[in-house]
Design brief:
The chain is built from 1 helix and 35 strands. It is mainly β. The strands form 9 sheets. Strands 1-2-6-5 form a 4-stranded antiparallel β-sheet, with no helix packed on it. A 4-stranded antiparallel β-sheet has the order 4-3-7-8, with no helix packed on it. The longest helix is centred in the first third of the chain and has 14 residues.
Length: 485
């Protein structure tokens, strides 16, 4: 009875509507597309990329070309340094193509950076920066090398950077010297022959060093960690291979690792150190002019942080940090949030006494994997990335006693990242070829005079294959090995 009454009332209400009445349409405005990067080419962590490749970025919305000026967009080769080129805007600005003016160096890692200030014509910004890297191709060599030159730096050379310091297109060397507290700079004459060194003062037990253009004046600058002094020296380049007097910034106790990245997405490179004795990381944020704000300390997720390297581990276009703990034998991945913060992602055992850490795609799946020199094991350990930034159990290769340095690079030009391990007490430099899956086989060994301390894998003579610079810190020598074509 009640249901019938309700139905009768509803029918009466409909019959009472005027004949001309219509149902009012409610307008719901469309939800605007978020402004973000859709895809990039070369892809994230791509291997064996042509040295003359163009770089393509696709966006959900048309970009404002004026927002693609430096530093909001830039390309930096680890060895070839800041890359100049031309920009083309296609598809109404939804696609941007960067064409380099000159080839990248053979076998180098190239970092492409977009700041959070990149915007649409309507003023929408990315909100967070977007960075990714790829590896340029190298030509196959024949796997044999000639010792072409022996360099004499300062006292106890350890760590080296092998890029273009004087902007002439040839790869030079900067070598920190722990006991003489300076950096020796050797300039390349274009044939892979190096000049006598010039020295520039830094701190005591200076060791890890990397290069960037911190103030975007077009000149290469250096950041060097000083282990005993517990600080970082920043040297502004003059563009000719010489440097201005150092500026010093306090960090934690015994900074044994150093890496560079744009942590907060403002386009400027920041500095992170791994501090063994205070068991933490220090972040030095770039003020936007190459000077740095006071350090911010945060945990690395391990114990006695000894090495740190930046890389995108989860494929989101934001650089993360990978840290190793000398005491608890673990590797930690901390996810970058693009605003200067880092949160726990993953930690696992990698091997005993990890001393130095590197990242690169070892099995060609597009994800950064991890390698570490295991000083207490006489081994190097490698963990493949599961694809989301978590790491698979380590595999190892055996070397001689006390390995303390490790690096990745394509030594034989087959498109896969090979392995270099330096052994301090063993007195050797060990090299392994990658079969493309991340499995390493012993390739060759160079003897050190006293202590194998580190290598740089770079094309020093410009012939397209990867050569080797090897440092012996107890003999105070740097050995230049050119690969035969």
């Amino acid at each position: 009875m009640i249901k019938s009454l309700v139905a009768l009332i509803a029918m009466t209400a409909v019959l009472a509507l005027p004949a001309q009445a219509t149902v009012q349409q409610v307008h719901i405005p469309p939800v605007p597309l978020p402004f973000k990067v859709v895809s990039v080419d070369p892809p994230l962590n791509a291997l064996n990329v042509s040295r003359t490749t163009s770089i393509t970025m696709r966006f959900t919305l048309p970009v404002d070309p004026l927002s693609f000026s430096t530093p909001d967009f830039h390309v930096f080769g680890r060895w070839s340094t800041m890359t100049l080129g031309s920009l083309t805007f296609r598809e109404g600005g939804r696609t941007v193509v960067f064409t380099p003016d000159s080839p990248f160096a053979a076998g180098e890692n190239v970092l492409v950076s977009l700041s959070r200030h990149v915007r649409t014509r309507g003023g929408l910004t990315l909100g967070k920066g977007f960075s990714w890297s790829f590896w340029s191709a190298s030509q196959p060599g024949n796997g044999t090398y000639n010792l072409s030159q022996t360099l004499v730096p300062g006292d106890v050379p350890y760590g080296a950077w092998g890029g273009d310091l004087d902007l002439d297109g040839d790869l030079d060397l900067s070598v920190p010297n722990e006991h003489s507290a300076d950096v020796s700079v050797f300039l390349n004459d274009g044939t892979g022959t190096f000049s006598a060194p010039q020295s520039f003062g830094v701190g005591v037990n200076c060791s890890p060093n990397e290069a960037a253009d911190f103030d975007f004046d077009g000149k290469v600058d250096l950041a060097v960690a000083n282990i005993v002094d517990g600080d970082v020296s920043v040297l502004f380049g003059n563009g000719d291979g010489t440097f201005q007097s150092q500026q010093r910034y306090d960090v934690g106790d015994q900074p044994r690792g150093l890496t560079l990245l744009d942590a907060d997405g403002d386009g400027y490179m920041d500095i992170v150190t791994a501090n063994r004795n205070t068991s933490d990381l220090s972040l030095l944020m770039n003020n936007g002019n190459g000077t740095f704000a006071p350090e911010v300390r945060f945990p690395g997720g391990v114990q006695n942080e000894t090495g740190v390297v930046a890389g995108d581990m989860d494929g989101d276009g934001i650089l993360d940090l990978v840290t190793i703990g000398y005491v608890n034998d673990r590797v930690s991945v901390r996810r970058g949030d693009g605003n200067g913060g880092f949160s726990y992602l993953y930690t696992r055992f990698i091997g005993n006494g990890p001393w130095m850490v590197v990242v690169g795609d070892l099995n060609g799946d597009g994800h950064n994997d991890v390698g570490a020199a295991l000083s207490a094991d006489g081994r190097a350990g490698m963990c493949l990335n599961a694809g989301d930034g978590t790491l698979l159990p380590p595999t190892t290769v055996s070397v001689t006693t006390f390995p303390l340095a490790i690096d990745f690079g394509d030594l034989n030009g087959d498109g896969s990242l090979d392995l270099s391990v330096s052994t301090y007490a063993g007195g050797n430099f060990h090299f392994f070829y990658n079969d493309g899956t991340g499995a390493m086989t012993n390739a060759f060994t160079f003897p050190a005079w006293t202590a194998g301390s580190c290598t740089v894998l770079h094309d020093i003579d410009g012939d397209g294959d990867v050569d080797i610079t090897a440092t012996d810190e107890l003999a105070d020598r740097v050995f230049i090995y050119k690969q035969n074509p």
